[in-house]
Design goal:
- This protein is an all-alpha fold.
- The chain has eleven helices and no strands.
- It folds into three domains: 61 residues; 81 residues, Tetratricopeptide repeat domain (Serine Threonine Protein Phosphatase 5, Tetratricopeptide repeat); 69 residues.
- The protein is globular, with a radius of gyration of 34 Å.
Length: 215
């Protein structure tokens, strides 16, 4: 389309340049013809813009992901990395609430509760979310997750974290999170076993060991 417009522009320019060399009658004809070409050229430009718009902006708009896509990508990444970042899990939980993915949201909130057991803002938000979810499920006659089911989900995530730490090792902060999770779940025997294992890892680093154990 662009090359056609360039040819038309050249024709119009040629007609205007040679018009003075022609007779008056021919000059008028040439001017009329050049006017016609000009009108066609403008129409072509407008038509091209109307059809193609702004290709550069169109590409940018198409690249913007939807909330559903963002939540799905974040969820996949967190589970793949076995993330212990409470902030990212919190973002995921809120996104799942907006998408009405209530069961997934409960799981994500439970993970955040394990990672941040003493956070008052989280406790308030979680309570409000649970109340809202129950109301929605009751209105649609869907069964809600029981407290035991919620605890089971939290326990599964804790076991996943423990398995990774025992197999691959981890940072002091991750071991600290594991101990907090054991405390929230009331898994005292497993917590004691974790502490014994941690002491062997940091036997020559008493300061780090004391930080992990909260001493």
């Amino acid at each position: 389309m662009i090359w056609i417009l360039l040819i038309m522009t050249a024709i119009v320019a040629t007609l205007f340049l040679f018009a003075p060399l022609l007779s008056n009658e021919n000059t008028n004809s040439v001017r009329k013809l050049s006017g016609l070409f000009t009108a066609l050229m403008i129409t072509g430009i407008v038509g091209t813009y109307a059809v193609n718009g702004r290709p550069d902006l169109t590409g940018e708009i198409e690249k913007i992901p939807t909330l559903s896509e963002e939540v799905a990508a974040l969820k996949s990444q967190l589970y793949l990395d076995k993330s212990t970042d409470p902030g990212q899990w919190w973002v995921l939980a809120r996104g799942q609430m907006k998408l009405e993915q209530y069961e997934d949201a409960i799981v994500s909130y439970e993970i955040v509760r394990i990672l941040l057991p003493d956070n008052p803002e989280l406790a308030e938000e979680y309570g409000s979310a649970i109340t809202f979810i129950r109301q929605q499920m009751q209105a649609s006659n869907e069964p809600t997750l029981s407290a035991n089911e919620q605890m089971a989900m939290g326990a599964n995530m804790t076991e996943g974290l423990a398995a990774r730490l025992y197999e691959e090792g981890g940072s002091p902060e991750e071991w600290k999170m594991l101990l907090k999770a054991r405390g929230v779940l009331g898994e005292t025997e497993k917590r004691d076993a974790d502490i014994a294992h941690i002491k062997t890892i940091y036997a020559d680093q008493p300061k780090i060991l004391a930080e992990i154990l909260g001493e």
